[in-house]
Every structure is written in C-alpha cells, then in structure tokens.
C-alpha cells in the first residue's frame, strides 16, 4: 500500500487517490482506514474509487449501464456488441432523459439502424418507408393517437394537382416548371394505366384568373382559380382553407357542409398534389397536407410514378410478404448534407389512407417548358364564402425585397468587364445607355468588375452587385444578342453566356479568348466604340437584332 | 459556458503525413483519437514535389507505421538523382545519387491526393478501434480555451471539442500555431514557395525517355540562370505515369525580383534541356502551389504550449538540404514522437507533460539537429553577410573562379562538394549557391543543348480553369488594399499576375476625386490556398470552410 489514508487529510487524499488504479490496493486502504480513524467521508472516497476501478475491469452490462458515467466513445464501444433492439431502445430513451448527447444518440441509433436493416434486407435500399410507431414501439408517439384524423376511408383519388404560385401578377418560373413536369408524368401515367387523368392547376390570389390560359399553355388540362382582393398577399389561413375546399369534392366527410359537387369530376380528393418549395409554397404544402392527413415530401428534386414492391408489414399488413403498390409517386429529395438522395413514398396502410401523395419541388429542378398557346383546357372559377375570420391577421406594412436581378429572358444583354477600368463610372453609364436602346435588355457584368477596387459614382454604384454577374458562379443567360465589352472571356464567364444566339465582342486585344467564340468582333477601345454604337442605334442607322438574325451560329 | 462538449483523449488536426503518423501512433498506444481534416478527402488540399524519404537515422518512417505504404500509396522509387547546372543553353550535369542516398533507406515519388487518401483510410480504421475516427470536411478554426488554458479546438462545422492532447498537424499556415502564438506569418525570409505541374506521360514513354524499368525512377534538379536570378531551383520527378515538374524559391527573393512564379515554372518547362523528356508533347494535368517553411529559420525549437503540440510544417519542420527537400519525412517523425510523448505522459498520469517530453524527443532523436543545424547558424552569419556574399559571388564569376571550377571538376572535387550533406546543409541563402555558382559551373564546364523545346504550357487562365473549386465565402480579406502594403502578392501569388484580370490579386489604378490611387483588389475564387499572401500582403488570412475551396486531384 503506497498511500496510507490514515496519514492524510481528506483534502489531499482526493487528488492522490485518483492515481490508484489497483482494486486490491484500494481495498487495503479501506481496511486501514476502518482500523484506524474510520472517517466516513474518507471511506466513501475510497469506495467510490474502488467502484470505478473495479467497474472498468468488468464488461458493462448494457441494460444497466450508467450512461451518465460514460463518454461517447464508451457508448460507441458498448453498443457495437449489442444485438438486442430492445436494449438499444432502452439505452436511447435513457440517454434522451439523461444527458441527451447528440453524438451518443447517433451511435445508438446507428446501431439500431444496422440491426433493423439486416432485418429488412429484401427492401430496396432507396425506398424509405417510415413507420415510427412500428420502428420504435417503446417511444412516445404524440401523433399516434391523434384525435382528428381526417383521412378518407375508401376514398376515390384522381388527377395531379399543381399549386401555381404567382408574384406581382405573374406565374413564377417554378409554377411553369411544375406544370411541364406534371404534363409529362400524367401523359405517361395515362398511357401506362389506360386512364385519362388530368393535370389540374390551382391559382389563388388577387386577379389571378387572367393567368389561367397561361397555365393551360404550360400543360394544365383544367385550371381552378379563386380571386379576391384580400388575397393579394399570401396568408396561411385563407390560402389553406381555399386550397383544401377546392380539393375536397362536395359530400366530403370533413369538407364544407354546403359545398356543391363539382360537375367536372367524380372523385373525392386529388391523387397527387405538387407545390413549389418556395417560402409560401412550403408553408401551404405543409398546412394543406396536414389538413388532408396525408404526408409530404418536401424539397424534392425529381418525381416519377411507378409501382413499388413493399415488404414492410406496417404497410402491407402481411408480415413476410411483399406487395406491389401501384401508381406510387416517387419523390426524390436530397438529404440534409445535400450529397445523398432518398426517394420518399407516401403509401396507404391497412386502416388508414395516405392521399393525396404530396410533394414540394425545388425551383429549377425541371426545365421551363415551351408554352403552347394552342393548347385547350377548361377554366373553372371556384366559388366559396371567405370568412372574415380568416383575415383577422392584417398585413399593415411590407417591404419589397430588392427582387434580385433576373437577367434571363432578355433579348439583349450588354455585359461589361474590366475593360472599363480606365473610367469605371463612365463605363457603366455607357453600358446603361446601350441597354436603353433596346426593348428587353439589361446590364450584366463579369466577376472581374464586381470584385475590383473600382470606385463608382453614386448613381451607377447600385448596378455593380453580384446579382448582375454572369458565369459559373453567377447567372446563365441565352439572349438573342450578347454584347461583351472589355471582357476577356475566361471559361468561368463563358459558361454563363456562350449559348447566346449572337455574341458581339468589343475588345482592344485581338487575342482575347472571347474573340474565339464571338460571332462579331470589334477591335478597339470600348470608350470609343460604345458611344458610336449608341449613336448609330439612336439614329436608327444600325439594327443589331437584324444583324443577329443574319449571323451564322458557330 | 456549458461543459458538455465532446471529449476525446487526443485530437489531431490535419491528415497529411504528420497527422497520419501522429494518429496512427496514438491509436497503436490505445489512445482515443479524433482526426479532423478540412479537405473533402485527405490530400485534396495538399501539394508536394515530392519525394518522401525513409531516413536510416529517423526514429519513425512512414512504411514503419503503415507497412503497405510503398506498394499502395507511392509512385516510383528514385534510383537516380542528377543536378543540372544551367547557363543559357549550356548545361553541366552532376550525379548526386550519393547525396540522395546518404542516410536514405528508400525514397519514393508521391502524389499527395493518392497518398493522403490512402493514409486516410488506414488512419480511420486504426483510430476507430480506440473509440475515435477521422472526419473530413471539417475545418478547425481556433483553440478552445478555459481560464486561459488550451483545452480543445473549435470548428466551423461542429461544436467545440475538448481533448487532453491537441496535435496540430495542419500544415504550413497553421492557424492553430498562429492562434497559440507559436508561429508567425511575417517574414518572407523564413519561407519558400513551391509551384508544380503534373504532366501526363504514359509509363511506356517514361521507360523509354528516362531509361528506367517499372520499379525505377529518376529525379532531376535544375539550378542556374534560368529563373531570372531568383534564388531557388527546379525539379522533375517520375511518377508511375506522369511527371512532377516544379520549382521551389525563397519567398523573399521572389518578392524582391517581383517574379511571376508561373513564368519561372514555364521557363523550366520550356528549357531546351527538357526536350529529351517531353519531346514536344505536353499535357498538364494540374497546376498547384504551396508555401514551404525553411526549418533553418522557422522551426520552433519548442513547438508546444499546454496541451497543444505542433508537428510537421505547422511547426516549420521542413528541411531544405541544398536541393533535397525533406518535409514529409520529418512531419512523420514529429507526428509519431508527439503521439509517443502524450501516450507516455498519460500513462504516468501526467498528461500535461506531453509537450515537454515531445520537445525532448525531437532533440534526443536528432530531428531538431537536422532541422536547425548549428553549423548553419555559424555559416550563415558569414555567408549571408552582404559584403561576404558579393565577394564570393564575384569570385566564382571571375576568370580565376572559373579556372578554379575547372580544376575542381578535374579533381572530382565538385561532385564531392555537391554530394556532401555537410556542405549542402550549410549553404548560405545567397545567390551564390543557387544562381551564381551553378551558372559559372555551367559556363565553364557545360555542354550546349542542341534540341529545341517547343512545348506550350497553358496560360494562367487555363490553369485556373482546369482546377476544381467549390467556391465558398471569401477566406482572405485585405486589411490594407494599397499597392504598397499588399502589391507584392500580385506577382507572388501563383494564380495572379501583373496585367492579368483573372487572378486573385489584381493591380489597379483607381481615380478618386482627381487623384489616382494604386490599389490591389482580391477575389479568392481562383485561390489555390498556397499561403503566400498571408506573408507578403496585409491580410486577414484563414483557410476556407471544410470541403470548400480548391480541390487537387493529383497534389
Ligand atoms: C512544391 C513542393 C515540393 C515539395 N517537395 C517535397 C519533397 O520532395 N519531399 C518532402 O519531404 N517534402 C516536400 N515538400 C514539403 C512537404 O509537402 C511538406 O513538408 C509536408 O506536406 C508537411 O506535412 P504536414 O503533415 O506537416 O502538413 P500537410 O501535408 O500540409 O498536411 C496538413 C493537413 O492539414 C489540413 N488542415 C490544414 N488546416 C486545417 C484546419 N484548420 N482544419 C482541419 N484540417 C486542416 C490540410 O488540409 C492538410 O491535409 C514540398 C512542398 C512543396 C510545396
Ligand atoms: C471558381 C471561379 C468561378 C468564377 N466565376 C465567374 C463568373 O461566374 N463570372 C465571371 O465573369 N467570372 C468568373 N470567374 C472569374 C473569371 O475567371 C475571370 O477572372 C473574369 O471573368 C475576368 O473578368 P474580365 O473579363 O472582366 O477581366 P479581364 O480578364 O481582366 O479582361 C479584361 C478585358 O478587357 C480588355 N480591355 C481592356 N481595356 C479595354 C478597353 N478600353 N476597351 C475594350 N477592351 C478592353 C482586355 O483586353 C481584356 O480582354 C470565376 C473564377 C473562378 C476561379
Ligand atoms: S490568394 Fe494568397 S493563398 Fe490564394 S493562391 Fe494567391 S497567394 Fe496563395
């Protein structure tokens, strides 16, 4: 025995005893203390140490391991050997109630997942079928005994409904993207299943009726709209009520009592609903899908419809069997890291229907289709009383965000580069003057200008922002005419503009890269050339767009 | 402050050779170790020449720690080693294989992406065994302190992490070393800048043009008048199916001459001497650069503070032994010694002593003596003294000096001098050994190269265009954008140049209220994170967030 406790004050025994790792030695010390001064706190000290040292030698029994005493690494080591799901779930619960360490929980959950995966190996790994009640029977499931289930029993579901968001009286791009995608999906669907289901566009807002034809042109078979001046801005309650009232046909058990049945349909609710994953679309999608008591796959980047083989007994009701579910909307979405994708399915289960199958879609995931003005479709104005109650929240003030500059969709883009360096303010002024010569034109910039130390006079400074950057880390534009003045044509700039129909480069350097992929090249100083160009355009001596028409595309 | 931060026995920051060696040794000693690496994968941020050495006298070697290393992670062994002294077209070649083989068990060429990512896999397996692991895409951005004591690290991507030992193997421009005040980024004289190109070449062409078998390789070094008088030299190493061709210059000299690193590299690439190997074909796979510490001046003899220990480039442990560059091997030794020191201290129940033990080991194992030779301190006092330097310069330049050179060569003295590790490690940092002497040697003894080398290396814009970037927030900010304060970076930055608008640093004349200011602007998008501007410009310099910034495929 190296340390005789009876020789020490309790205060200096504390630190010393931490170095003693030998259980026998500790027992000896304990005996010595009992025989000697027999101080209670000293005995506790030694006993505590003894417990710790002795404990380390034995393998901890996970079912009564004291998580509070364990580091995350201890936990990680321990769970690796546990085969029993119940024990793991118990551990998880105790960690939650105790220190609730994220990392410790993820160790336990990771092990749980591994065990559960090996239980369902036959399942397609892409398909995530969530059934929390089944998966974690011992946990609380606050929604399991939800009182207000509003799902239908034996409901009839048809059609794909697309919520088309508008801003400033215009369809936003993602609305068009969704319509185009829905069109494609439903055409294939109808072929595959021999059906004739439709794409239904939904418009809600102030004066949105006039956008109905446009929705048809982008692919809708029917457009249901409701307009009211109080709906000028998005508001949660009225928008949700209206959307759900539109979707639930008359006679719906949870719908409005006096809602008439639509004469154009004979089903209860949409089969599929698609929303934009914008700020407003995210809110509406969550509220509406909750009201339908279905699910929602948010922020999807792809959608497709096909059958799915499912063996999860919670869904099939037949343990050990694989059942083919038909007409399943597969909703692909990035996980939170953004690197991996999961495909979410929203499936009925025995005793409970999960419809409409709903998704919100990340803007830009699909192409904006070309509109077909010849397409025909049915436009239906939805009628329903709007209760004053829904408008209790009043919008008293709002700011229009500096809407970001959207350079796409212009016929002409005038882009300026570091060639303006001699007199940056005048350079921008010239660019703006040139822009003014065209109807649908705007000003773009190379990154080189935006990141320069140039000083701009107040009246042009507002134009020099990243919002006008064209290229790899800026916007991609394809105007009829792209005028690049003082831009060298670095590859990172090129990828943002080389799909333009006609590229006109103005540069002092005939060897600049941009000359290689321009249709027209004007060698010279932009401070001389731009004024001449503006002048002849003003006088009507030059028609650049005509020039563009005649240019060969190379 | 809450105290529920995660705790590990040891945290290793950076998974280059230094971090890998430290983590492997810790794991072997049963220490619970977490390794944090900012790249998307280890090696994606790293550039070396590079020949990795296993020294006979070293306490640790990379293949000792990772037995499969040579078969899995490296390229060709170097079996021949030459130095070319160049004056115009005249070249005098000296066989330096003896110097290369001095104290060398083996030496292989490596490409860092491949090497480090292989190490990453092994290190992850080993550290997992003891309750830790290796995480990539995590950038450590500072030291966690409690009551003034270092107790862990803070990260951009994770909550702070506490540890009983923190091993900073975060390379040159170590933010942790700076945070602790153990290293500074001020004096260009303490650093080199290395720039290199990886050139595609099939194994069959290498065999034919270099006269080597599959398991043989060559190193060629270049010095003389081909680099505009900038002190430093060039190298060419054979990989399995590519060449590494690059340059290493003293940063102060680069700045003084306002030389453009990419042009100096091109001067080497297009020198007629290289025609025998390139034969008119040139496909550049990657352009990269990195700052390199000069251990003679930068190595901190006491690289630790509290729980923090610095290893490898982070501690300035990069030895330039004349033309031979030894950084990776010393990082391995130091990493393993730091790990060993902590493990011993921990076993004795006094983990706080790890740093002191590490310092002692560096000294007792002879590592510090190689990094900071006392001979150099004496020699440099004489050799770098301006007056003496110019006398020696003019001596070798004078006909008398030349005669001496010829005589020395005839007697075999020249080869002996170059092959002496002693002479090489005490060479003063003046132009004499780098420029004047080699030029004089080549003029006196060299034979002219007759071939023409007409390869065209890509311009800077294309080199930048060929690199992969995941652009994040700007990680460098200019504190002073006047040309006087930060203008040196316009030429010294390997991806910037005077009259080039596509670089990080751009020279600009800006008119304000009638008068003109000479300024620089900075855009970090093309940055290859070499660290140069941290020293030569007035910046707030950090590494990009985990996984962001440039990603080297070769390294
Ligand atoms: C052109 C050139 C040629 C060279 N030639 C040779 C040669 O032939 N032989 C030789 O031995 N040496 C050579 N060197 C030097 C050698 O590359 C270095 O000495 C060596 O890489 C140092 O190893 P290290 O482990 O200390 O640091 P590094 O290899 O630089 O590793 C540091 C690691 O830490 C990571 N990291 C950095 N900061 C953070 C952070 N904040 N958070 C998380 N991770 C971080 C980095 O991503 C990196 O993976 C050369 C260097 C250059 C540039
Ligand atoms: C990862 C990454 C992403 C990037 N993303 C983008 C991006 O999205 N968009 C982008 O633009 N860049 C981007 N860049 C930067 C890009 O590489 C170039 O640096 C940039 O486009 C150069 O801008 P510039 O052409 O205006 O300047 P410079 O390359 O400097 O060219 C200026 C041109 O002007 C000409 N000139 C000079 N004076 C005159 C005059 N008086 N009259 C006429 N011509 C004159 C010169 O001959 C020269 O050709 C990115 C770079 C990286 C590395
Ligand atoms: S900006 Fe600085 S760190 Fe980046 S490449 Fe240039 S010199 Fe190196």
Describe this protein's structure:
- By secondary structure, chain A is an alpha/beta fold.
- Chain A folds into three domains: 5-121, no CATH class; 157-311 and 321-391, 3-Layer(aba) Sandwich (Rossmann fold), CATH 3.40.50; 412-552, TPP-binding domain (Rossmann fold), CATH 3.40.50.
- Chain A has 19 helices and 18 strands.
- Chain A has helices spanning 10-17, 23-35, 40-57, 72-80, 85-97, 102-119, 132-135, 173-193, 212-217, 236-247, 279-291, 313-316, 424-436, 447-450, 458-461, 491-494, 513-516, 526-538, 544-550, and strands at residues 127-128, 157-163, 166-167, 170-171, 199-205, 222-227, 269-276, 296-300, 302-310, 323-334, 341-344, 357-361, 378-381, 412-416, 441-445, 481-485, 502-507, 520-523.
- In chain A, the strands form four sheets. A seven-stranded parallel sheet of chain A has the order 8-12-7-2-5-6-13, with helices on both faces.
- In chain A, strand 10 and strand 11 (341-344) form a beta hairpin.
- The longest helix of chain A is centred in the N-terminal third of the chain and has 21 residues, at 173-193.
- The radius of gyration of chain A is 34 Å and the shape is flat.
- Chain A starts with 9 loop residues before the first helix and ends with a helix.
- Residues 121-127 and 550-554 of chain A have low confidence and may be disordered.
- Chain B is an alpha+beta fold.
- Chain B folds into three domains: 2-75 and 110-183 and 300-371, FAD/NAD(P)-binding domain (3-Layer(bba) Sandwich); 76-109 and 187-294 and 378-457, D-Amino Acid Oxidase, Chain A, domain 2 (2-Layer Sandwich), CATH 3.30.9; 469-551, 2-Layer Sandwich (Alpha-Beta Plaits).
- Chain B contains 24 helices and 26 strands.
- In chain B, strands 1, 2, 7, 8, 9, 10, 16 and 17 form an eight-stranded mixed sheet that branches.
- In chain B, helix 1 packs parallel to helix 5 and helix 16 (386-397) runs parallel beside helix 20.
- The chains are: A alpha/beta (554), B alpha+beta (555).
- The interface between A and B is medium-sized, with 28 and 28 residues.
- Bound molecules: flavin-adenine dinucleotide (2 copies) and iron/sulfur cluster.
- Residues 476, 489, 493-496, 504, 527-533 of chain B line the site of iron/sulfur cluster.
């Amino acid at each position: 025995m190296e340390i005789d406790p009876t020789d020490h004050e309790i205060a200096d025994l504390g630190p010393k005893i931490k170095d003693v790792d030998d259980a026998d030695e500790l027992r000896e010390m304990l005996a010595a203390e009992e025989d000697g001064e027999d101080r209670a706190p000293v005995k506790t000290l030694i006993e505590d140490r003894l417990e710790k040292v002795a404990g380390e030698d034995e393998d901890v029994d996970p079912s009564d391991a004291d998580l509070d005493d364990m580091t995350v690494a201890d936990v990680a080591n321990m769970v690796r050997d546990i085969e029993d799901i119940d024990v793991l779930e118990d551990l998880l619960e105790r960690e939650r109630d105790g220190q609730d360490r994220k990392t410790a929980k993820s160790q336990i959950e990771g092990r749980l997942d591994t065990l559960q995966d090996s239980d369902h190996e036959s399942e397609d790994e892409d398909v995530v079928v969530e059934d929390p009640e089944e998966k974690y029977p011992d946990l609380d499931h606050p929604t399991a005994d939800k009182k207000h289930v509003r799902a239908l029993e034996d409901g009839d579901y048809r059609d794909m409904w697309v919520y088309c968001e508008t801003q400033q009286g215009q369809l936003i791009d993602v609305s068009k993207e969704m319509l185009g995608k829905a069109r494609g999906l439903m055409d294939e669907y109808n072929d595959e299943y021999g059906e004739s289901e439709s794409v239904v566009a939904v418009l809600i807002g102030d004066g949105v009726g006039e956008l109905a034809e446009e929705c048809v042109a982008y692919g809708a078979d029917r457009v249901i709209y409701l307009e009211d001046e109080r709906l000028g801005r998005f508001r949660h309650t009225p928008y949700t009520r209206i959307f759900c009232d539109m979707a639930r046909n008359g006679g719906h058990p949870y719908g409005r009592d006096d809602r008439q049945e639509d004469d154009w349909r004979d089903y209860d609710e949409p089969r599929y609903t698609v929303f934009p994953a914008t700020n407003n679309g995210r809110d509406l999608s969550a509220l509406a899908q909750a009201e339908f008591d279905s699910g929602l796959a948010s922020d999807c980047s792809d959608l497709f419809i096909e059958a799915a083989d499912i063996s999860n007994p919670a869904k099939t009701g037949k343990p050990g069997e694989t059942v083919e579910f038909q007409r399943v909307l597969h909703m692909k979405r990035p996980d939170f890291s953004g690197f991996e994708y999961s495909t979410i399915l929203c499936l009925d289960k025995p005793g409970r229907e999960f419809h409409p199958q709903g998704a919100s879609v990340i803007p830009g995931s699909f192409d904006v289709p070309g509109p077909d003005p010849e397409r025909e479709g049915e436009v239906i104005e939805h009628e329903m009383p709007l209760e004053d109650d829904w408008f209790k929240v009043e919008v008293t003030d709002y700011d229009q965000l500096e809407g970001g500059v959207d350079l796409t969709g212009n016929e002409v883009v005038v882009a300026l580069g570091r060639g303006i360096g001699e007199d940056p303010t005048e350079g921008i002024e010239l660019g703006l003057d040139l822009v003014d010569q065209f109807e649908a034109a705007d000003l773009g910039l190379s990154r080189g200008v935006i990141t320069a130390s140039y000083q701009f006079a107040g009246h042009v400074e507002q134009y020099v922002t990243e919002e006008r950057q064209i290229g790899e880390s800026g916007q991609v534009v394809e105007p009829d005419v792209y005028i690049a003045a003082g831009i060298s044509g670095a590859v990172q700039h090129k990828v943002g503009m080389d799909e333009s129909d006609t590229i006109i480069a103005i540069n002092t350097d005939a060897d600049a890269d941009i000359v290689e992929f321009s249709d027209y090249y004007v060698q010279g100083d932009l401070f001389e050339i731009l004024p001449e160009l503006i002048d002849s355009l003003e006088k009507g001596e030059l028609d650049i767009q005509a020039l563009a028409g005649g240019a060969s595309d190379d | 402050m809450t105290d529920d931060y995660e705790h590990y026995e040891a945290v290793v920051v950076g998974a280059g050779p230094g971090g890998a060696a430290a983590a492997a040794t810790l794991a072997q000693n049963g220490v619970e170790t977490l390794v944090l690496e900012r790249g998307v994968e280890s090696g994606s941020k790293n550039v070396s020449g590079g020949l990795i050495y296993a020294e006979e006298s070293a306490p640790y070697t990379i293949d000792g720690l990772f037995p499969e290393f040579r078969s899995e992670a490296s390229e060709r062994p170097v079996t021949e080693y030459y130095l070319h002294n160049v004056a115009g077209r005249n070249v005098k070649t000296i066989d330096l294989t003896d110097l290369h083989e001095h104290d060398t068990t083996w030496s292989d060429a490596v490409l860092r992406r491949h090497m480090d990512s292989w190490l990453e896999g092994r290190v992850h397996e080993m550290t997992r065994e003891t309750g830790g692991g290796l995480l990539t895409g995590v950038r450590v951005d500072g030291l966690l302190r409690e009551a003034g004591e270092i107790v862990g690290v803070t990260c951009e991507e994770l909550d702070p992490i506490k540890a009983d030992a923190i091993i900073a193997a975060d390379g040159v421009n170590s933010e942790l070393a700076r945070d602790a005040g153990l290293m500074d980024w001020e004096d260009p004289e303490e650093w080199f800048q290395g720039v290199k190109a990886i050139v595609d070449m099939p194994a069959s062409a290498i065999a034919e043009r270099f006269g080597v078998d599959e398991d043989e390789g060559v190193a060629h070094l270049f010095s003389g008048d081909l680099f505009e008088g900038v002190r430093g030299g060039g190298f060419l190493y054979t990989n399995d199916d590519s060449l590494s061709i690059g340059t290493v210059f003293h940063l102060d000299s680069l700045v003084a001459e306002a030389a453009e690193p990419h042009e100096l590299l091109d001067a080497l690439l297009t020198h007629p001497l290289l025609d025998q190997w390139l034969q008119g074909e040139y496909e550049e796979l990657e352009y990269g650069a990195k700052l390199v510490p000069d251990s003679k001046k930068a190595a901190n003899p006491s690289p630790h503070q509290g729980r923090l220990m610095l290893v490898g480039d982070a501690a300035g442990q990069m030895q330039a032994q004349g033309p031979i560059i030894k950084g990776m091997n010393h990082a391995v030794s130091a990493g393993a010694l730091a790990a060993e020191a902590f493990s011993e201290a921990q076993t004795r129940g006094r983990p706080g002593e790890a740093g002191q033990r590490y310092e002692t080991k560096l000294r007792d194992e002879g590592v510090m003596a190689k990094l900071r030779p006392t001979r150099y301190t004496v020699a440099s006092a004489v050799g770098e003294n301006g007056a003496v330097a110019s006398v020696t310069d003019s001596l070798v330049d004078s006909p008398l000096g030349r005669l001496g050179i010829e005589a020395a060569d005839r007697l075999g003295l020249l080869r002996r001098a170059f092959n002496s590790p002693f002479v090489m490690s005490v060479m003063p940092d003046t132009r004499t050994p780098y420029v004047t002497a080699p030029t004089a040697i080549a003029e006196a003894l060299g034979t002219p190269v007759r071939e023409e080398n007409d390869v065209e290396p890509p311009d800077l814009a294309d080199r930048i265009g060929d690199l992969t970037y995941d652009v994040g927030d700007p990680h460098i900010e200019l504190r002073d954008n006047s040309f006087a304060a930060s203008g040196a970076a316009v030429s010294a930055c390997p991806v910037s140049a005077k009259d080039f608008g596509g670089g990080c640093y751009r020279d600009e004349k800006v008119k304000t209220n009638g008068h003109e200011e000479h300024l620089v602007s900075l855009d970090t998008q093309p940055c290859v994170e070499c660290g140069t501007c941290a020293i030569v410009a007035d910046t707030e310099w950090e590494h990009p967030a985990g996984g962001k910034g440039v990603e080297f495929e070769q390294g």
